[in-house]
Amino acid sequence: MLKDIKALLLDVQGTLTTRDEHGRNILVGGVRLIEHARRTGRRILVLTNATKRNEAILNDLRGAGLPLEDGEILSAGQATGLYLREKRGACRLWILGERSLGEELAKYGHEIVNDTSEKPHFVVVGLDRELTFEKLNTALAHLRSGAELIGCHASKRIPEKDREIISVGPIVKALEYASDKQAIIIGKPSRVMYEMALAKLRVNPHEALMISDELKNDLLPAKDIGMKTALTLTGVTKRQDLERSEIKPDIVVENIDDLVSFL
Amino acid sequence: MLKDIKALLLDVQGTLTTRDEHGRNILVGGVRLIEHARRTGRRILVLTNATKRNEAILNDLRGAGLPLEDGEILSAGQATGLYLREKRGACRLWILGERSLGEELAKYGHEIVNDTSEKPHFVVVGLDRELTFEKLNTALAHLRSGAELIGCHASKRIPEKDREIISVGPIVKALEYASDKQAIIIGKPSRVMYEMALAKLRVNPHEALMISDELKNDLLPAKDIGMKTALTLTGVTKRQDLERSEIKPDIVVENIDDLVSFL
């Protein structure tokens, strides 16, 4: 059933890699699948909600052992930079996120505003492990002065070492409520990211297979847009979660590399 | 029309006081109304979403010149402490808020948990000008371990000096989204606070007059519960806002003291 697939979209955390107790990326699988895809002429795209420089994400994945090439990635930071350039041209952005997100966004011609006296066109929210009350208040002031709100994605939590931490979605919800504005969401589960991936891969939805360990945030929107979906059981979703869920992927495998025999 | 009113519920910020450019409370009005209420046998209750010690709030108001007596206040912190004691007895609480909120909550027999290894029954969110990412993550961990979420109130913003800052509501929204839990809201605009005020004043809803500069958060819920409502124009609501609003208070005055001639 998956022989017609021309492109593979790969989630990262829980699908390709996981983190050990020191927070380092360790491989879950993917080497065999990527090599098989190259042999059989399938295109590959890592689809990640990470909000830092693409190069840093690719280096992490290569460091974990994955044979990925330059350009085989679409991250939420990159997608945000591309979306804004396409819809609005070069913009002035105020970033609630880490330095590396600013570096990624600047690649697409946007100006990163630091001085609070300058009026940005957009407040862009990414993951910020150094979030402070002051940053939230500056974001609010910019929003009240006319800036629009962009969420690089809307994930609720991300795993980190032995716990889960607050991701981008909760901060976007806080700023929406505080400012009476509605955010534009770019990354998963937003359609924007999936449409951008299809355009980059030059394939139709039914020719693309989204592979992830997560049903609601990753596979459901892929299914909604007409992609095929594959669930891996190496991450957050267990077999009993799948049985309870109304979201039914086209295929379920223990490990991402088990997909080789279907492709 | 207001002669039958037996109790006055007074909002603080924008109604009784405002802040000067140094952040100090200065009086907007209220002395004449309070004195008139005493002469005519009306009970008085300051109804505030402040989440610090009641004594500190009363001292601020007296410092601004208002002749208020002990007990003539119901704050969101106090209401939270009373609500939890009534519904659940003495609880273990983890507080995302300032020290003064913990002091207020402890008055009602609750234990304030500081050590992150102890499991609280509730995460209580108040105003926290020293909010950090770490505090949000600790709150999330407690919620994921079974604690319930309480918002002392759900206000969006509060004025501070020459700007508005993030209030309690946005932080509650962030934690609700991150944890997949729904918060119990105590202060305005929640019914809980208004019902508690009526019980404290021993009056029926139609015998109580809620006085505030704010339509949606303060006067609408008062109206919904059957109270009479008076809007003052010394705060956030201007006459043109009132004209555009679907919320129609029973009476509109420039200054709170203008109510004297109606009571």
TrEMBL record, chains A, B:
<dbReference type="Pfam" id="PF13242">
    <property type="entry name" value="Hydrolase_like"/>
</dbReference>
<dbReference type="GO" id="GO:0005737">
    <property type="term" value="C:cytoplasm"/>
</dbReference>
<dbReference type="InterPro" id="IPR036412">
    <property type="entry name" value="HAD-like_sf"/>
</dbReference>
<dbReference type="InterPro" id="IPR006357">
    <property type="entry name" value="HAD-SF_hydro_IIA"/>
</dbReference>
<keyword id="KW-0378">Hydrolase</keyword>
<dbReference type="Pfam" id="PF13344">
    <property type="entry name" value="Hydrolase_6"/>
</dbReference>
<dbReference type="InterPro" id="IPR023214">
    <property type="entry name" value="HAD_sf"/>
</dbReference>
<protein>
    <submittedName>
        <fullName>HAD-IIA family hydrolase</fullName>
    </submittedName>
</protein>
<dbReference type="GO" id="GO:0016791">
    <property type="term" value="F:phosphatase activity"/>
</dbReference>
